[in-house]
Amino acid sequence: MSNELSKKLNEQLNFELESAYIYMAMANYMDAQGMSGFDHFFVQQAKEELEHARDFYDFLQETDCVPEYEAIPKPPKEFGNFTDTFRAAYEHEQEVTNRIKAIYKDAVEVGCITTQQFLNKFIEEQREEEDTFRGIVERLERINESWNGLYILDHELGQR
């Protein structure tokens, strides 16, 4: 594997950790708003991001690369209303997708089939993640921050 490709994979490892950090901040913000279902949803999302980070860690080690950890930026404390919070999460997932696709493109250019195969599951998962967040944002926009609708959605997301 090229040094440049391993560097980008390592950057993604760190970005997955940052993603978990952001989702935990969102969970905390939702909990402070009294929305335990939204809190639970974001905690589960953070756990997934940590699993992804571990996948990148393992892949780097399996391909004889040494994972390196970088400092994680402090996430915001507040994210606006509920729609704004989930919209920010959706935009974050789009950024994750763009990063993974860029790494995949680089893997194709250098002919690293192993990396391409590794990234395939993340490309599929990102399609699902974006669809999930897009759907939640659409529902939040429809209910227009109505407490009745928020409580119903909070309950549903708490079942994740």
Characteristic key phrases:
mainly alpha, elongated, 160 residues, single chain
Structure commentary:
The chain has five helices and no strands. By secondary structure, it is an all-alpha fold. The model has no long low-confidence stretch (mean pLDDT 96).
Topology diagram in text:
Elements: H1 3-32, H2 36-62, H3 82-110, H4 113-143, H5 147-157
> Percent helix among the residues?
over 70%
Compute the separation of the termini in Å. Answer: 38 Å
Poorly predicted segments: none
The arrangement of helices and strands along the chain is HHHHH
Structural class: mainly alpha
Reported for the largest beta sheet, the result is: none
Number of helices: 5
Radius of gyration: 17 Å
User: What would the principal axes of the Cα set say about the shape?
Assistant: elongated
In what range is the share of β-strand residues?
under 5%
Number of strands: 0
* Overall mean confidence score, pLDDT: 96
Task: Sum this structure up briefly.
This protein has 160 residues and is an all-alpha fold.
